């Protein structure tokens, strides 16, 4: 499984970005796809995930500001991030895990930088 993320960049506080991730290869279905992030000096943390059945899990820090969605037919997952804050600055990683499978797959990451 390969995951290719795009859409990161530099944005001012209060701005918005839309991240996209395309999955390819031998994808287990059903599955959970989503996003984690890692800021310098910090551990990787959950941002948002969504199952094939549209069950979502969002970190408290992004609730009300970020929205996750996916297109199962295209094997895509998206993260709409609004009202961005400097503390959202991190490398954002796309994630996929098949239900019932232990293997986790990660994209290379896309940098999001929010200036104050």
How are the SSEs ordered, and which strands pair?
Layout: E1 2-6, E2 9-12, E3 17-24, E4 31-38, E5 45-51, E6 56-58, E7 66-71, E8 76-81, E9 90-98, E10 105-106, E11 110-115
Parallel strand pairs: 2-11
Antiparallel strand pairs: 1-3, 3-8, 4-5, 4-9, 5-6, 7-8, 9-10, 9-11
- β-strand percent reads over 45%
Which percent bin holds the helix content? under 10%
End-to-end CA span: 37 Å
What general outline do the C-alpha atoms trace?
A: globular
Give helix and strand order, one letter per element, not per position.
Answer: EEEEEEEEEEE
* Alpha-beta content class: mainly beta
For the CA atoms, what is the radius of gyration?
Answer: 13 Å
Instruction: Report the strand count.
Output: 11
**Count of separate DSSP helical elements:** 0
Largest sheet: 7 strands, mixed
């Amino acid at each position: 499984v390969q995951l290719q993320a795009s859409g990161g960049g530099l944005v001012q506080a209060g701005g918005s970005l839309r991240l996209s991730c395309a999955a390819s290869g031998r994808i287990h279905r059903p599955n959970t796809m989503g996003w984690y992030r890692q800021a310098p000096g910090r551990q990787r943390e959950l941002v948002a995930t969504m199952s094939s059945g549209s069950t979502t899990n969002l970190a408290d820090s992004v609730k009300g500001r970020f929205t996750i969605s996916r297109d199962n037919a295209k094997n895509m997952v998206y993260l709409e991030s609004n009202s961005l804050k400097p503390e959202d600055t991190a490398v954002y990683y796309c994630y996929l895990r098949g239900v019932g499978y232990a293997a986790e797959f990660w994209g290379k990451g896309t940098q999001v930088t929010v200036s104050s």
